[in-house]
Amino acid sequence: QVQLVESGGRLVQAGGSLRLSCAASGLTFSGYAMGWFRQAPGKERAFVAAINWSGGFTNYAESVKGRFTISRDNAKNTVYLQMNSLKPEDTAVYYCAATRSVLTTISHDYQYWGQGTQVTVTS
């Protein structure tokens, strides 16, 4: 059974930092590109960041570029999202996802999804 489990979401003040983790099991982790998406209340799920199988290439949404960093540790089957300079508009449920495609920003291209972790940024 493929399982992606996010952790690290919490309430944080604007300007603060947060590190999300996503632990994967049931798949050959190094064979998948990984992505982070987020969904705020009343809005569609949106792309945040993606990383290829080796970690050598990344892609970011314009709204988080320069503030967020995606990384992965294939030995630990884990992908991370380091979030700095957080803004209230970053408030959302953050989802981890896995795809056999490369650096795709399209949610439909991802085969597996976690249950999400809530990030709340106060002003």
Architecture overview:
With 123 residues, this protein is an all-beta fold. It has no helices and 11 strands. It has strands at 3-7, 11-13, 18-25, 33-39, 46-51, 58-60, 68-73, 78-83, 92-99, 112-113, 117-122. Strand 7 (68-73) and strand 8 form a beta hairpin. The radius of gyration is 13 Å and the shape is globular. It starts with a strand and ends with a strand.
Task: Walk me through the topology.
Blueprint: E1 3-7, E2 11-13, E3 18-25, E4 33-39, E5 46-51, E6 58-60, E7 68-73, E8 78-83, E9 92-99, E10 112-113, E11 117-122
Parallel strand pairs: 2-11
Antiparallel strand pairs: 1-3, 3-8, 4-5, 4-9, 5-6, 7-8, 9-10, 9-11
Task: Describe this structure in a few short sentences.
The chain is mostly beta strands and 123 residues long. 0% of the residues lie in helices and 49% in strands.
Helix content class:
under 10%
Helix tally? 0
- Overall 3D geometry? globular
Distance between the termini: 40 Å
Q: Care to count the β-strands?
A: 11
Structure classification:
mainly beta
Mean pLDDT: 96
Order of helices and strands: EEEEEEEEEEE
- Catalogue the unreliable spans: none
Largest sheet data: 7 strands, mixed
Oligomeric state as shown: single chain
Report the radius of gyration as a whole number of Å. Answer: 13 Å
Query: Strand-residue fraction?
Result: over 45%
